[in-house]
Design a protein that fits this description.
The longest helix is centred in the middle third of the chain and has 24 residues. The protein is mainly alpha-helical. The relative contact order is 0.07. Helix 9 runs antiparallel to helix 10 and helix 11 packs antiparallel against helix 12. The C terminus is likely disordered. The protein is built from 18 helices and no strands.
């Protein structure tokens, strides 16, 4: 097998396994053969082990650099490789047969299945690969509207509109994270119509939160604030925590500093328990998530010390949370707030420590807002241009955003660097 053929086989296996396209080529294989690269990334090592039918990296001549602590996640072959479509289809078929089993257009178990699907998708978001969750959300949406085309009592119709509305709101949220907030707004308008048809206030509140988020990532902060403030009219669960804090960030970024401070003070006084109807995941605002948004508001108000205080509090709460409730997507964003605050306060080592867990984020979870925030963080390293530690950190951020196929650069091991 030639170098080019080996590279093509590895890339094909990685695509089949992860649905991520890698750019391994014959030149890189040549570097491996010469020993110019002794420790390629986990994906390439896994692919080479599989294609060359070896058990360990050492059999391929790979070894980590001396003193390096290997803590990167290994790419492993899932036990369901080649069966994902069959497993999903079988589950959909069984769920669809509930309607037949109940001998009616709709029964309690059918609605229960829709709600269970929504909760599972929401709670697995940014824990499991995004594409299958996106596809599942679309399947729930389509199933709910297919059932609505039949006949059911008004109460059950409202339940179907609620399930369909949550599924579409998930599609909107994911679309924003994939860098298409414009498409998210199309989803959100339909989700709002579902919330109106269902007369479901908590769904209304989270649709408004999603519309805020889509407008925010289009830099339309005034419109984002309008959505957040309107959503508070309907919020009774943890959406009140999210929307009140989000409104403060929007106002600060729109330049309305006095209004933003008033909104932030009010947000910190909000005490809201989660609603039973909130699916979780992006549609649940825990105290740690709220504190992270407060830190964002203080950053927009140029208050670095307050930013760091709330970001530290938020990260500590995230780390103490149970695995089931830990919102890893929000946690990564807050760690970037930590890093920014440290940089503004002249604390390069603190920024490096805050960024380290973010830089270990697997490729499939590097959503567009996270990439955007890493770019903002990299820009704050400009004053440290003469410091070697800062230059390495900036290159690692660039690799994270623009060259994710490269093996991760390791942090420089050195004493704390004096500020320039």
């Amino acid at each position: 097998m030639s170098r080019v053929e080996l590279a093509e086989c590895v890339c094909a296996w990685l695509w089949e396994t992860t649905e991520v396209r890698y750019e391994l080529d014959g030149h890189y294989i040549a570097k491996l053969e010469r020993g110019a690269v002794r420790w390629p990334g986990a994906a390439y090592r896994s692919g080479l082990r599989y294609i060359l039918d070896v058990v360990s990296d050492s059999e391929l001549g790979f070894s980590p650099p001396p003193g390096m602590v290997v803590n990167e996640p290994e790419l492993t072959l899932p036990s369901t490789l080649g069966m994902a479509d069959e497993v999903n289809s079988a589950g959909d078929e069984s769920a669809a047969l509930l309607t037949f089993a109940e001998e009616s257009n709709l029964g309690d178990l059918t609605v229960e299945q829709l709600n269970a699907d929504i909760e599972r998708i929401a709670q697995n978001y940014l824990r499991a690969p995004t594409k299958p969750l996106f596809d599942r959300s679309r399947a729930v949406r389509d199933r709910a509207f297919h059932l609505l085309a039949g006949r059911q009592p008004p109460k059950q119709a409202r339940e179907l509109y609620t399930a369909g509305g949550w599924a579409i709101t998930l599609l909107a949220w994911i679309s924003t994270d994939l860098g298409r907030p414009d498409i998210a707004e199309s989803h959100a308008r339909t989700a709002w119509a579902c919330a109106e048809a269902a007369d479901h206030d908590e769904l209304r509140a989270w649709v408004r939160a999603t519309q805020h988020t889509a407008a925010f990532w289009q830099d339309d902060f005034a419109r984002a604030a309008g959505y957040a403030q309107d959503g508070l009219r309907y919020a009774s669960g943890s959406s009140a925590l999210f929307l009140s804090a989000a409104a403060a960030v929007d106002l600060a970024r729109a330049g309305h500093e006095d209004q933003a401070r008033l909104a932030l003070d009010a947000a910190k006084r909000v005490s809201a328990e989660p609603s039973l109807s909130e699916p979780g995941g992006p549609f649940l605002c825990t105290p740690e998530r709220a504190a992270g948004i407060w830190s964002d508001a203080h950053l927009a108000l140029n208050e670095a010390q307050h930013t760091l205080t709330h970001a530290d509090q938020s990260v500590a709460l995230f780390e103490a949370a149970s695995h089931a409730l830990r919102n890893v997507g929000s946690e990564r964003m807050v760690r970037l707030q930590q890093a920014k605050a440290h940089l503004l306060l002249g604390e390069l080592d603190g920024a490096s420590a805050a960024l380290e867990p973010v830089l270990m984020t697997p490729l499939e979870y590097r959503v567009r807002p996270l990439i955007h925030r890493t770019g903002e963080t990299a820009a704050l390293l400009t004053p440290y241009a003469r410091v070697s530690q800062a230059r390495v950190l900036r290159e690692r951020l660039r690799d994270f955003a623009y060259r994710p196929d490269l093996p991760a650069r390791q942090p420089a091991l050195q004493a704390p660097t004096p500020l320039p």
